[in-house]
Amino acid sequence: MQLMISENVKRLRRERGLTQEQLAAAIGISGQTVSKWECGDGYPDITTLPVLASFFGVSVDEILGMDAYLDEKRIDEAKAKTGAVFLAGPLQNREIVELWRGLAREFPRNDEVQWICANWLISMHYTVHPEDLTEAVGILERLLEHSNDSERRNQAYALLINALSALGETDRAIELAERLPDLSQSREATLFGLRTNLQDFNDRLPHVREFAAQAASLLLQPLQMLRIFAQRGDCADDAQFLKLIEVERALYELIHYNDPSGQNLPNFHSMLEILLASFYATRDAEKTLEHIEKFVDLRLQMPRPHGSGGKGWINTAIDENGKATGDPVWEESPALTEEQIKQLPFAEPAFDPLRDHPRFKAAVARFIEGT
User: The domain containing residue 228 runs over which residues?
Assistant: First the structure.
């Protein structure tokens, strides 16, 4: 633990509008001594600490920084507990929401706590608690009023825009979104420009791949929308949509050529396969089934933690205080619930005509078994 005496003495003195000399005179020491405390060149002795705490109307623990340390420890324990129950289900997830809601009330000026609470409230909207969106909007608006952390502010803006959109306040969401920097001024584009000015040309390749991957991922959502327009007949022809898919596929293969993790390509390709399957669903049953089977094959190829080959995750036992009580262990994941199955990509209405087809049933069953 790091003592925070110098920061706390300076903060408490300034909050009360005092000079170093005024504080020194009030507690019977020299102004030079206060200056040393605030510069970190010395600390109050054991007899002075209670006098200092009494003058400011705080505890000795607050002068030392113990309160901040204990608060940080509680927040870290809440994070650990959150990670331990994240996959446990809606009931346990609701308990986590209540945990962060309580911390958000207790630490109204802690940007991280406020953001995590809002994030959980918004995520619960997608299950059974749409009213949480309004609470999340209030939290994020207050965070934006007092936060000076540019990164956290950007995250809060993104969450707030999503929440407002989900509430149907589209005009307000668009107004906020228009305040954000365009792609050419984004962090990723700026870093790409800086990193590609490296003197050693060979050092540029990883940064080129990283930025290209980010740019390629941005194309997925427009492609999904184009698929809908193509199904409605609003595109010039199907070939236009299919050409875009092939360009996207080729771009991603180039970016992740010899990808050391082996995970990005099957993951991305599977997304394209289910996109193509839904595109063909109203046109060609055979092609639809082919793409669904490819989607399942790719998903089941994705690497498992520690080469387990099974389905599940690495878990660590956590006690009621959020502390680890043992070594990490591999846990088999439970079977998908009916509610989770309804949210799978195959649940899209476009696939309704194929639901009784043996190949469709076999692909879905294989996916559920391996997930």
Answer: 219-371
Number of domains in the chain: 3
- pTM comes to 0.52
CA distance 112 to 118: 10
List the beta bridge partners of residue 314.
330
Clarify whether residues 364 and 283 are in a common domain.
yes
Task: Single out the residue in 46, 64, 82 at which a domain terminates.
Answer: 64
Annotate 59-82 with b (16+ C-beta within 10 A) or e (fewer): eeebbbbebbeeeeebbebbebbb
Least confident segment among 45-59, 123-137, 224-238, 314-328: 314-328
Q: Long-range pairs for 292-296 at CB < 8 Å and ≥24 separation?
A: 292/346, 292/351, 292/359, 292/360, 292/363, 293/359, 293/363, 294/269, 294/270, 295/270, 295/345, 295/363, 295/367, 296/363, 296/366, 296/367, 296/370
